[in-house]
Design a protein that fits this description.
With about 650 residues, the protein is of the alpha/beta class.
């Protein structure tokens, strides 16, 4: 390697470096119509060059913003790199956002150019075009359904690429000159936060922010160009963007784009990723699928699974971490790996995984231990858009289910008297776009970023996050109330998809529950329980009894934790609908907007606390085709048993 990483201080420079030193190696793959298509580093770099020249000819200039809207596709990543080649700034947006949600970031960033995946995204942009006067150029990848669209702003990606190819061949020196102008301190991308507790903010990250943090962790975890990653989360999420764009350009590994959301598990089995990252909800969904299948299994197979999972929980993690384990237990685990764990990892597409991360929010300890016990090196990391993701990561030999590990090299941590975590790191963002007040509130004069998360450092030097600082409260008796901690415990059960807990400054904790339709429907069918849909199933007494059992198991666990023993869940109801991002109840990264839900369903919260046994609800919902309708239902409210600390072990 003739050039050091220090001279490769922007992503375009890194891309051209890989095209020179490993030009024939795979850079990106996409499954299309059941067949994997591969772009080498040289081919990918060429496409980026041509696309950049096409955009330059269309008027994209340094400092301009280019929106990218679509699922993980090679051309979305080509668009990000092409913008950066010109000194322009890519702005990835969530492809499942409704048109109205896209209007704010497009206006705020004065976006003039957009590359979108298909007709669905074109229709959204055309709908809000009058609200976005800067948007003059929309380029679409998939031409299906767009043949008869006659809009001056519209053009196909292929036409843009073709013009760019001709432009590059006439004057290749232009682009090389533009790329050479880039510096590490330049803005690399603009990411909009998910808006969990407030309006989305544009986070400005520099090349140095993203490259330095990506390199530190790649070196720490020994990530190389031989690794393979499946890119299946939205590119607009900073977590996915780091693992499928920033780190591949630092380490040189290949990313693979699945055919669709429905084929991810199948595609994982075919690709065999070695490096994996997903939020907890993905791991929860996979475990739910396993639980549903085992419920349907024959008795001998079910016994085999439960027996060897018991072995795995006892010794699996110790074996993976290289700790001493007796010969007989090691033999039992080997047999379990042959009969259960190995086939299970294969079904999940995790046979080759060397490192798996989860982040974005806390994961239930039992869920975490499940994956590690069957031989998946699942670790927790902590970070955010403002920190370029990497703040703390669990080392391979010191993994704990209830922490997010020690700080990554280069990161400093400290806490305010109110337990809020402050971070200082080379990855800290430059600013919030056009929002100096928010920037000053989040980042102080000494460079400390105020995360808004509450936590502490444990005796082993690991960071433990309790909840959002503003969400951590107390019951009337002074008991610590950490709603996210309780919700995660509930969501470990396959029958619970989402939970929302209330209790700050109240005499007890109560909860809303969303059942997991797939898991509960499967459970109901085996018991010959007829139902007509989600609302009907959720209202069945049998389902309430099933959920009550889950709640009471959580309560038994909580009774053993001194600080929060009294924050057991005393009453709950099962919501009449699934919480939905389109109804603003979840963010686009599927985080619960607890405060908004509490206000929207205030009568339901009141009924939980006033002793009511039922409550009537009428609510407006948005269907997938954009239409709205009303749901009317009488919801039951159920009591759950709580346990004094002394009785916790007997109850479990």
């Amino acid at each position: 390697m003739s050039e050091g990483i220090e001279t490769l201080d922007t992503f375009p420079k890194l891309l051209m470096h890989h095209a020179r030193v490993r030009g024939d190696a795979p850079a990106i793959r996409e499954k299309d119509l059941g067949i994997w298509q591969t772009w080498t580093w040289r081919e990918f770099a060429d496409e980026v060059r041509f696309l950049a020249c096409g955009l330059a000819a269309a008027g994209l200039k340094p400092g301009d913003h280019l929106a990218l809207i679509g699922a993980n596709r090679p051309r979305i990543y080509s668009g990000i790199a092409a913008a950066q080649c010109l000194g322009a700034i890519p702005v990835p947006l969530y492809q499942d956002a409704v048109a109205a949600e896209m209007a704010f970031p497009l206006r705020n960033a004065e976006v003039g150019f957009a590359i979108v995946e298909d007709q669905e995204q074109v229709d959204k942009l055309l709908e809000i075009l009058p609200q976005c006067p800067s948007l003059k150029h929309i380029y679409y990848d998939d031409t299906r359904g767009l043949r008869h669209y006659k809009h001056a702003e519209l053009e196909s990606y292929d036409a843009l690429l073709s013009r760019g190819r001709e432009s590059y061949r006439r004057d290749p020196a232009f682009l090389e000159s533009e790329m050479a102008k880039g510096r590490g301190s330049d803005t690399a991308a603009l990411f909009f936060t998910s808006g969990t507790t407030a309006a989305p903010k544009g986070v400005v990250l520099t090349y140095t922010n993203l490259i330095e943090r990506s390199k530190v962790v790649a070196d720490w975890e020994k990530i190389t160009d031989k690794d393979v990653v499946l890119a299946f989360m939205p590119p607009a999420w900073i977590g996915q963007n780091i693992f499928s764009y920033a780190q591949p350009l630092v380490a040189g590994y290949c990313i693979c784009c699945p055919e669709s959301a429905e084929t991810v598990t199948t595609d994982m089995r075919e690709i065999g990723p070695t490096y994996y990252f997903a939020p907890p909800r993905v791991f929860e969904a996979l475990l739910t699928q396993v639980s549903v299948r085992m419920d349907d299994a024959a008795a001998p197979k079910k016994w085999l699974y439960h027996h060897f999972m018991g072995v795995a929980r006892r010794v699996g993690e110790r074996i993976m971490e290289g700790k001493p384990v007796g010969f007989f237990q090691r033999f039992q685990y080997w047999l379990g790996d042959l009969l259960v764990y190995g086939p299970l990892r294969n079904v999940l597409g995790m046979s080759r995984i060397r490192i798996a991360y989860t982040g974005g929010e806390a994961i239930g300890p039992d869920l975490f231990v499940f994956y590690r016990s069957i031989g998946v090196n699942l670790k927790q990391l902590y970070g955010s858009t403002e920190t370029s993701v990497f703040v703390s990561i669990q080392p391979n030999d010191r993994v704990k289910p209830d922490t997010v590990g020690p700080a990554v090299p280069g990161v400093e941590l400290k806490f305010t008297p109110q337990r809020e975590l402050l971070i200082r790191s080379p990855g800290i963002f430059k600013e919030y776009y056009k929002n100096p007040q928010a920037t000053m509130e989040a980042k102080d004069a000494e460079g400390w970023f105020h995360t808004g998360d509450a936590g502490y450092i444990d005796a082993d030097g690991h960071l433990k996050i309790i909840d959002r600082a503003k969400d951590v409260g107390a019951l009337k008796d002074g008991t610590l109330f950490a709603p996210k901690y309780l919700e995660n415990k509930l969501k470990f059960f396959p029958y619970v998809k989402e939970a929302v807990c209330f209790g700050d400054q109240r005499d007890k904790v109560c909860a809303f529950i969303n059942i997991d339709m797939e898991a509960v429907a499967n459970w109901a069918e085996k018991r010959n329980l007829a139902y007509s849909g989600y609302v009907d199933l959720a209202s069945r007494d049998e389902v309430y009894a099933l959920v009550r059992e889950c709640v009471e198991k959580v309560n038994a666990d909580l009774a053993q934790e001194k600080e929060i023993a009294n924050s057991q869940i005393r009453r709950f109801l099962i919501l009449h609908k699934e919480l939905d991002a389109d109804d603003e109840e979840l963010t686009r990264t599927r985080k619960v907007r607890r405060r908004f839900i509490g206000e929207k369903y205030a009568p339901l919260v009141a009924a939980l606390y006033d002793g009511s046994q039922t409550v009537h609800i009428e609510a407006q919902v948005r269907y997938e085709d954009g239409r709205t309708g009303k749901i009317s239902a009488d919801l039951k409210i159920a009591d759950a048993r709580a346990f004094p600390p002394a009785a916790a072990m007997r109850a479990a």
